[in-house]
Amino acid sequence: MSPTVHGTSGMVERSVADESVAARQRQNDFVVFDHVQKSYDGSSLVVKDLNLSINRGEFLTMLGPSGSGKTTCLMMLAGFETATHGEIRLDGRDINLVPPHKRDIGMVFQNYALFPHMTVAENLSFPLEVRRLHKSERDSKIKQALQMVKMEKFADRRPAQLSGGQQQRIALARALVFDPALVLMDEPLGALDKQLREHMQLEIKRLHENLGLTIIYVTHDQGEALTMSDRIAVFNDGRIQQLAPPADLYERPNCSFVAQFIGANNKLPGTVVELSPSRVLVQLQTGELIDATPANVTAVGQKTLVSVRPERVEVRESVTPAGVHTIDAEVLQVIYLGDILQGCLRVAGSDDFIIKIRNTPGEAQLVPGSRIKIGWDPRDARALDSL
Question: What's the pTM?
Answer without folding.
Answer: 0.85
